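lol ok so funny story. i was supposed to be doing the assay writeup but got distracted and ended up predicting the structure for this chain instead. priorities right. anyway since i did it might as well share w the group, maybe its usefull for someone
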Amino acid sequence: MKKRANEIAYDYIKAKILDGTYRPAERLLEAKLSEDIGVSRNTVKKALLKLEQEQLIELTTNKGASIRSLDIDEVIQYMEIREELEAKIARRAAANISEEDTLELEKIFNTMKDLSRVHDYEEYSRNNRKFHNIIYAASGKPILTQYCMNIKTQLSRYQFKTMLVPQRSDNSLLEHNAILQSMKEHDADAAEKAIRVHMSNLLTTIIKYKNLVF
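and the output, tada:
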């Protein structure tokens, strides 16, 4: 199905926020966006309103749009909340996940290993999202999952940069392998422990290397 103009504009701007092309506090000019994307300014306005609802940008009267920035304390709070949500999701997923889904998790994990070896962190991140999305779906907890996804959207631009930290990709693989094994064994306790270790290590990396991440 062909995308509508407002979806194209929304996807374009959001992608550039999350990959760091648009920097925190940077102003977004409607006329420039309209020209770059090839859509009307009214279409850009609608996309910006949607992005404001997701708390990725701020719209100010007479100043227009700017990229919303988070400080380290806000990131820590988001991560603390996310850890609790992820733990509940992981426990339920471990109990419910199908053999088909565990096979798909293993396939994605093997792809992540290959991508890490060649330092393709952008594609690694895409597969990372696919890995966790399978767990979210298997949990049967759509409300918890939606809250978790909202937080992940806020943190994506920071989390992506952690892959540039020395040894982070190796540690990330170890953490995902632990999650995978807990799912294959339907071990809820192990799943919760593995996801908490993953979240804790990620937060520790963000704090330790905040000059790189922010």
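The domain at 72-213 is CATH 1.20.120.530 (Four Helix Bundle (Hemerythrin (Met), subunit A)). The two ends are 37 Å apart (CA to CA).
back to the writeup now i swear
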